[in-house]
Sequence to fold (666 residues):
Amino acid sequence: MRMRLKLKTVFVLYFMVSLLGLIYALMQLGQRCDCRGHAMSKDQQISQLRGELQKLQEHIKTSELSKKTDVPKIYVITPTYARLVQKAELTRLSHTFLHVPQLHWIVVEDAPQPTPLVTDFLAASGLTYAHLHKLTPKDRKLQEGDPSWLKPRGAEQRNEGLRWLREMGAAAEGKEAAALEEAVVYFADDDNTYSLQLFEEIRYTYRVSVWPVGLVGGMKFERPVVEDGKVVRFHTGWHPNRPFPIDMAGFAVSLRLILTNPQARFDGDAQMGFLESSFLQHLVTMDDLEPKADLCTKVLVWHTRTEKPKMKREDTLQKQGLGSDPDVEV
Amino acid sequence: MPKRRDILAIVLIVLPWTLLITVWHQSAIAPLLAIRKGTNDGTETRHDTGPATDSKEYCSQDKDIVEVVRTEYVYTRPPPWSDVLSTIHVITPTYSRPVQKAELTRLANTFLHVPNLHWILVEDSQRRTPLVTRLLRETGLNYTHLNVETPRNYKLRGDTRDPRIPRGTMQRNLALRWLRETFNSNSSQAGIVYFADDDNTYSLELFEEMRSTRKVSVWPVAFVGGLRYESPKVNAAGKVYGWKTVFDPHRPFAIDMAGFAINLRLILFKPQAYFKLRGVKGGYQESSLLRELVTLNDLEPKAANCTKILVWHTRTEKPVLVNEGKKGFTDPNVEI
Fold:
């Protein structure tokens, strides 16, 4: 009898305690709004201060950016060709480049002469640039309907960029020449995506630096494999036996190396996928490669490709002579 | 034979705990506690008052939706308000796929040039993903990170045109709702709302054009409707009187999502205006919202009376990942 009584009391007590706990919790929830009310003004203040702080930091950054002359220059060579999405690609590319200090953009058009679209665009871009052009010979050019991998693209244009750099290098003297010793050259296609961090990784390259590239080679990313701080092989799913199984966006070369190796150029007749190797094998061995992006473990550049816009209706209209105004630049 | 008393006792024990746990779970006490502990990095967590508010969006239209979508708002880094420039609230729905980080990265690189921009990124996911969370934090932009998952039976399969919810609708609606809950119409803060998809390309000039929007402003968009560009038709008086499109030019608003911007005040003034979720014909999504806000006459043409292209409806190719194979060739821990 006594045992039972005790148990009963225990149960009742337990029930009361848990009920009180529940009521307390519910009250807590009810009060939540009030708490938030109090915290909100403080939160708002802190957020506002943070926002102002950020604004000031950005302001300092931009003024620093223009004054930063003591960091090595990055020469970015971008081959480009006229097609519908060209202006869009160049536009968003320029938005990325505008954030990078000491970047010199070398745009090489696949055209017999500079086009007004690119000329006007570069002039309004706010970037430091060189506008070149070099027409791909017909037999090397991809025809309409050819798959993109049939012939290597941009070889002539990149070589033209190299030629311009070598010309500049030969003409430079004194302080200018010294600055060129530290500069870096990067080949950036106009449809890829580049993070801002990438350029800071590239900037200090002694010979040839390498890093992973996302969305290329039929994989999520390709990368050099690093052991003990040295590149030992390449992790790629496609033709890993190439001398340098790396994408154009996955390496940068010091300008000094380019100037001291005047014969190094891209071979326009190279087999598919061997374009990069045709250039790099004259410059460096795998042993000398400098791994960047946290010893090649981070993806800072993506090999994105833009779809060709569907123009069925436009084509139909044009046949009827009712096409969109060609004076409106797209 | 269990005695009635014992059963009663067991019920009385279990009941308060079940009540407590359900209430606790629903309100997700954890973030609340975090706030009270003073983890005050400007984070404010708000919660929907239960499933009722959410299901209202769909149940009224049809009854086969049983799944309750719970939404969570996280509002971090509120923009510093400027007295002079209107804030541009850019609403971007996004979803996980291999090119997501790349798209958001280059979009952020563009947005970083626009003063007084507030990016409202809405993920189509059950929870806010670490990838997007980290990306937003590192960009330095003013942002609000939201998420709402489109119910699986509503998701478009690939690119097929389904009579289901066009992609991004629920996410855009959530952002509109967030704006209405955050700002009141009496506020003097001027704002412009723009719907920017994560794969389009925007010029910097576009944002300055839209800043002066009084009600709804419009402009041409490249690469839509199977044309070089689609554009509103503007008469000599500077008024929009039609649409220069081939695809159904008789839609109330034959314009792409990227081709218009709305003044925040109008959004707040008409709190019932949302994108229609179901039964929307292809190409009528934008009309479903705009017709509740404005008439053709009220539209303000920008971009030199709709003669310049300042935004391109680019689409990114789906990357070929054949070499990953079934088991995946690359390290899954590396974020792309």
In short: Chain B touches chain A through 72 residues (CB under 8 Å). Residues 29-72, 158-163 of chain B have pLDDT under 50 and may be disordered.
